[in-house]
């Protein structure tokens, strides 16, 4: 989630992303044995996921140089700069607002109503809470309790028609 990005990492990466006319959606840092994986997820201001590969490459080069100069990551790492993709990550409040009416999958930090995983329709996002309809039951989940969330792309025949 965007709010979980460490401030030092966000302060270093976000100005670069913004300078390229993009928005920072999330930073995922997978630690363990070296090399660590660092995934920077960016999107266009329109939120349409249409980020050019050249833009990802340019952001990647600049982020890598700045991370190395600041010695932010203490071990070898692989950097990936990507767009949100089909099952796009929902990390910011505006991502949830754009996804209203869509199928989503989310996981909470602590159990809510006896469960931590929810897959259903995002029916509302207001007053700092997400409302998800799962199997005929509505769950109101405080935004701060959402650990991770994705919009689930619903494929249609048009997706395979070859039309642009």
Low-confidence runs of at least 5 consecutive residues: none
Describe the strand arrangement of the main beta sheet, using strand numbers. Answer: 7-6-5-4-8
How large is the count of helical segments?
3
Give the termini distance in whole angstroms. Answer: 31 Å
Radius of gyration (CA) equals 17 Å
N to C succession of SSEs: HEEHEHEEEEE
The helix/strand class is alpha+beta
Structural notes for this entry:
This protein has helices at 7-19, 53-70, 93-98; strands at residues 23-30, 36-43, 77-82, 103-112, 115-126, 129-134, 137-142, 146-151. The protein is globular. The chain contains three helices and eight strands; from the N terminus they run H-E-E-H-E-H-E-E-E-E-E. The longest helix has 18 residues, at 53-70.
Task: Give descriptors for this structure.
164 residues; alpha+beta; 5-stranded antiparallel beta sheet; globular
């Amino acid at each position: 989630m965007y709010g979980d990005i460490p401030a030092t990492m966000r302060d270093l990466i976000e100005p670069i992303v913004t300078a390229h006319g993009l928005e920072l959606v999330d930073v995922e840092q997978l630690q363990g044995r070296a090399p660590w994986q660092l995934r920077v997820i960016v999107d266009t201001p329109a939120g349409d996921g249409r980020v050019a590969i050249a833009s990802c490459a340019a952001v990647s080069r600049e982020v890598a140089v700045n991370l190395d100069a600041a010695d932010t990551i203490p071990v070898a790492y692989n950097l990936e700069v990507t767009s949100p993709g089909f099952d796009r990550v929902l990390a910011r409040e505006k991502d949830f607002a754009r996804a209203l009416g869509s199928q989503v999958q989310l996981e909470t930090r602590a159990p809510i109503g006896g469960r931590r995983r929810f897959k259903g329709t995002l029916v509302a996002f207001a007053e700092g809470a997400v409302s998800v309809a799962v199997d005929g039951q509505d769950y109101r989940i405080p935004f701060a309790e959402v650990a991770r969330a994705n919009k689930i792309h619903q494929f249609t025949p048009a997706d395979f028609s070859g039309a642009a």
